[in-house]
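User: For a benchmark we're assembling, each entry needs the component sequences followed by a predicted structure for the full assembly. Here are entry 17's components. Please fill in the structure.
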Amino acid sequence: MSDPGLPQRFLDLLQQAGGPANSFGGHAGNEIETGQLWRARWDGDRVLVLILSVEGRDVIGAPVTLDPPAEDDLCLVVDESRNGSGVPATLWAGLTGPVPIRVLDQPVERWGQDIVHWAATAVPVPAEEVPPGTRRGRAIDSALEPAADVRAELDDTLDRLRLAPALPVVKPGDAPITLAALLGKGPKIDLLRTALGLPQHEVMKLLSGTRPLTSDLAAVVAAETGLSTEDVTQAVLALPPELVSEVEHPRWRTTWTEVAGRDGVDEATARLTASYGTFALAGRQTGTAAPDWRGRVRQFLNRPADPEPPREDY
Amino acid sequence: MSAYDEIREHRRFGPLCLALTLRLLSEEVRRFPALTPEQGWQPAELEDLLGEFLVDRIKPVTANLLALATDEDSLGKLLRTSIRRWLVDRARTTAVGALRRALEKVLSTTSDFEQVPATEPGAGRWRLAGSGGAPWGGKFEHLVEAARGVPNVKIPKWSSETRRAPVADSASIAAVAKAVLAAAGGSLELGQLVVVFLARFPVVLDPVVISLDEDAGTPVDLGDELTPEEQVVAAEQELEAAVVAAEIVGMLAPRERKIVPYLDNPRAIQALLGIGRSQAYQRAKRLKEKLAQLIGDSGDASAVAREVIWLCKNGR
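Assistant: Structure for entry 17:
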């Protein structure tokens, strides 16, 4: 053993313990389908979710836990023969609800449709008969039981995941509000240039809605103009739903994480910036066919680096 | 190579994950005074504890980390949570052993009970003395109901820094055991009695053990609208309530004391502790249940409850 402080018996024990199936944790592909078990993640929150159905920008999912061995009476405990983790997994059907696709991160494995059906129909009264290789969970009799704490923590984690930042999307009938329209006529550019420390062409982009208005920028604009932060935040150019569906898809999660790391921003800002960039790029392209947003995101990401803008203090 | 790289590459714990586990276990176990050995935590005891953790939890913990960890930081947080939850289970198991011993002591030293002799069916079980009851085979809920029907269960005085509060005093344990055995109408195994007691007193398994504050139990101002005779009686009652309340406050963790004044206001608990909606509701619910068991249903229960709130509100 490389650490002389720890006895060999521990490594022997670990060798004997075995582990999950080789496929567990890295299910191929990232198309979202019913019956898949996904890791959902945003900031420090992460949880396994079994997808019961897909509805627009959300999946309807039930959380799954592997550790600790907690359960309640609306749970289905799925034994090792029906999942690849190598241990019983607890499916919390009572906590089923919408989970935004934008927080799905990595497919872990696929579960049987009989389990999906049981979970999808478990609330309010679960079916007496359970799928083979599973059992109903035991009820929590007292709030002092640790399982009650585990359930509450799971519920709060799901709540926080639902609040992960979303992109502004065009709704039918909504007229776009740009920052320029919100501020009205007047000498805005110089005011914002000074307050935001940005060159003129970037301020112009902000006013026209082609540069994303991050929360930091929105707070400064609100302070300078006397508008509420909420009003300013809403003054963004909403994006086409097809583009939003594309960039919020988990196939791009790794890219946004890498871009965020490279640019020193958070994942939401990296995604927001790329979305506006893609949209602006599409606006300069011609043709009447429906845009291939996936191709355009790739095109945006592969574009040559912007030339350095002239320094305005020269 | 980091512990995260190690588990991603080998899909199991290796020396790096093991070293991290030992470090986190050493940190976390200090939160559980009920688990502390008499001589304190020595390297050999910590290694034994690590061995027990691995035997119990290595497979689910490994699967959990492979599924959810995305970097070294998240691996550390997930592993710490798994260790903490395992220690909670350990502390609860320790408490079951303590309850079993307390129960056995009361049964064997009280003349109301007898052990079934080796010559009779159910040898070694416990029954009411002279009842000659056969082994019980009824509904568990019926026994729990009988246990819940015993009034005036008293919690004992307790002020240790490290030890768990006993579930109830000897007289109360005997009264509950008597009611349960009478409802059974026959003999019960000690293990069956333990299960009934745990259902009646789930608070005994609660692992948080914090001692009584030095200054708790301050007598209250009685006011002057009572007659002198009434004042004497009231003073005794209030003083007793204050003493009991102080003992109960001593059994609460500092965080629990903080939220007692807000038990009916989960939003305030949410803000106070910086936790989510469900956890705030759960914290309030579990603390209400704990207090209900600790305060009991004696005649002065409401006075004790008021005193507990007053003490917690005033930071005693």
